[in-house]
Fold this protein.
Amino acid sequence: MSSPTQDNFSASDDNMPPSPEKLHASPHTMQKRSSKNVVLIPQPSDDEDDPLNWPIRKKIIIFACICLAGFAGQMSPNSNQLTFVLQIPTYGKTQADLLNTVAASLAGWMAGPFLFTPFAGLVGRSSVILWSLVGTFACQIWAANMTDPDDFIPFTISRLICGLFGVIPAIMGTGYIMDMFFLHQRGKAFAIFEVLIIFAVVGGGTLGGFIAESKPWEYVFWWTLGPVGGAIILVFLFVEDTTFSRDLSVPRRAPMPKSWLSNRVATFFPGSATQPIGRFAEFKRRAIVPLQITIAPITLSVGTFLAFFTMTAWIGILGAQAYGYFFNDTIPLWVARRRGGVWHP
C-alpha cells in the first residue's frame, strides 16, 4: 500500500483535498515541494498522522479555534483594567487598593507560563489549553459574584488565578503553528495570531469600559463568558493534538483513536495518551529550560542592553524638561526685548 505522501505525488488535482500542501518529488533534489514548487521546510514524513500532511481545511479549523482560545483567554484577566474605580463604593477601598487587583492579574500573566506550560509534556498542549480555559471561565464567574463589601480579598485572588490560566492559550498557541504549517506559511499565521493577542490585551479592558457605562461593574466579567465558553466548546470539538516526531530515533506515542469520541477522551481526559514514553522527563525539561533561559548570560546581557537602550529615552526626557525650564520663557522674553516689548508680530 502506498503512503499518503506518495499518493499525493501521483493523484490528480480532482482527487486531492483543497490544500496548498499538494506534494510532489523534485527529480533534481528529491525534496518534497508544494504545488507552487516551494521546497517544504520542514520536510513532511509519509505518515498520515504527521500534522504537516493534514488537509489545509483541517489545519485552518484548528488554527481558528486556537486563535479564539488565545484571544478569549488573554482578554479575561484584564476585564476590569479600566473600570476598577467603579468598584470602590462596593468594597470601600481606595483607588490604589483596587488597582492592586489589576496588578494581581498581571502577576498571574507573568507566572502562569512558568507554572502550567510544563504540564504540556505530561498531558499535551490541547489538554492544557482546554482546562486553562475552563479555569478562566470559572474565575470570571467567581469575580462577577464578588459584590459584597467583604469580598475584596476573594475578588483579588480570582484575578490572580484568572491571570495564571488566561495567559496559557496565547503562550501555547504558537506551538500549533510550528507543528501544522510549513515555514513559508508561518509568517502569515503568526501575524494573525499575534494581532489577535495584542487586540485582546488592549480590547478586553476597552470593551469592558463601554459595557460599564450602562451596566453594573460586574458585567465586565459576565460578558466574557461568551467568548471563553465558545472557545471551550470549539477546542473540545475540533482541536487535535499535534505531537509528532519525524526523528525515527525518538520514541513515538501510540496512534490516537480514530473514533471522534474516543479521540476526544484520549486528548482531554486527561490527555496523557497524546504523549510518548518518557513524558515525566519532558515535564522536567519544560520546567527547567525556561528558568535556565531566564538566568542565562545572554539573557541577562540583552536585558541590560535594553535597560540602557531605554535609559536613552529617559535622558532625552530629562534633557527636554531641563531645556524647557531654562529656555521656554527666556527665548520669548529675549525676542520681546529685541522688539521693544512686543514678541508677537
User: Anything to note?
Assistant: The radius of gyration is 27 Å. The first strand starts at residue 24 and ends at 25.
